[in-house]
Design a protein that fits this description.
about 325 residues; alpha/beta; seven-stranded mixed beta sheet; five-stranded parallel beta sheet; 9 helices; 14 strands
Length: about 325
């Protein structure tokens, strides 16, 4: 995607502290000046946000992933939306590359909070006019909002990177039945077959048990595709099972690389040969392992901002490999 036209002057892009490096790349792609704002964290743990320039009548875009520290980054996003509305911005569009509470999309047990719905209500009531996500863990979260919502997909960027690797005899592996639809798109993009890992989660934690693998991986390069990786435990267990089933090697292609706990050591010592992730999460200044390659979503997000601002369609950017 190449920029062919300048954007009008009545738009401005602000960076939340959870996406400062990504925002810089997006502004470079769009050839626009990044908006100036300040964030102060007081000693008792509260946050102070101030917009440092005139945004009256402008269309504002706030780039903020709610990765670790998730609650601080989410509250910062709310305060930024509120500050922009109080500064008489024409519209405010938060762009949330990684939405940490997307896993809390339903009541999967008695007396639990639907956390994603609470967050959606907060974003909307604070004054957002439009929200953009990237690879939401649960698509139905879009229905929690009464304002426009777009859910982008990193599939075109990740599949392009995989094709450039010229992997021999690949097979796409869906990590569970819930990711089959996206996994099929990856398989179509790489013109290869699809295998499904059946796993079971018995507690409210980051661990799931691999029960079975449906499909043939013997003599193939298995590529596990998923929306996020946290501690890496489930991914590594799936990789070990794939090797035991005859896979020659195991790769992974994941949108959000959280890499929590001891993920670095676990991945480095695992049978996973290579992992491709996007820069939607900035908890690490450098890749946590030399097995990990980071590809940028800045061109995708930049093009989405340009099209939203000009009133053009973005569906072709978010759905096709």
């Amino acid at each position: 995607m190449i920029m062919k036209e300048k954007l009008p002057h009545n738009m401005i892009i602000f960076a939340g502290s959870g996406s400062s490096r990504l925002t810089k790349k997006i502004c470079e792609y769009l050839n626009v000046q990044q908006g100036q704002c300040q964030l102060i964290r007081f000693s008792e743990g509260t946050l102070f946000v101030q917009i440092d320039e005139n945004i009256r009548g402008k269309d504002v875009y706030i780039i903020q992933s709610t990765s670790n520290p998730a609650n601080d980054n989410f509250m910062e996003l709310l305060f930024m939306i509120d500050a922009c509305k109080r500064a008489n911005a024409k519209t405010v569009t938060p762009i949330i590359p990684y939405f940490s509470y997307a896993k809390g999309d339903k009541m999967d047990d008695a007396r639990v909070s639907i956390r994603a719905r609470v967050c959606a209500d907060a974003i909307e009531s604070t004054g957002a006019d439009h929200v953009v996500f990237l690879d939401l863990h649960a698509q139905q979260i879009q229905g929690f909002f009464s304002i426009p919502v777009d859910n982008l997909h990193a599939l075109p960027i990740l599949s392009k990177s995989l094709r450039e690797k010229r992997i021999k005899n690949p097979v796409i592996v869906s990590p569970d039945v819930g990711f089959i639809k996206q996994a099929r798109l990856f398989a179509k993009a790489l013109d290869c077959s699809l295998v499904i890992v059946y796993k079971e989660r018995v507690a409210h934690d980051e661990n799931a048990k691999v029960i079975n693998i449906l499909g043939d991986v013997n003599g193939k390069t298995a590529i596990i595709v998923d929306d996020f990786i946290a501690s890496g435990g489930t991914l590594i267990e799936a990789a070990e099972n794939l090797i035991n089933r005859g896979a020659l090697s195991v790769w992974a292609s994941v949108t959000h690389g959280l890499f929590t706990k001891n993920a670095k050591e676990r991945i480095q010592n695992s049978p996973i040969e290579h992992i491709i992730v996007t820069d939607s999460v900035e908890t690490e200044s450098q890749p946590v392992s030399d097995k990990i390659q980071i590809v940028s979503i800045a061109p995708l997000v930049g093009e989405v901002i340009r099209r939203i601002h000009n009133g053009d369609s973005i569906s072709e950017l978010s759905c096709t490999p």
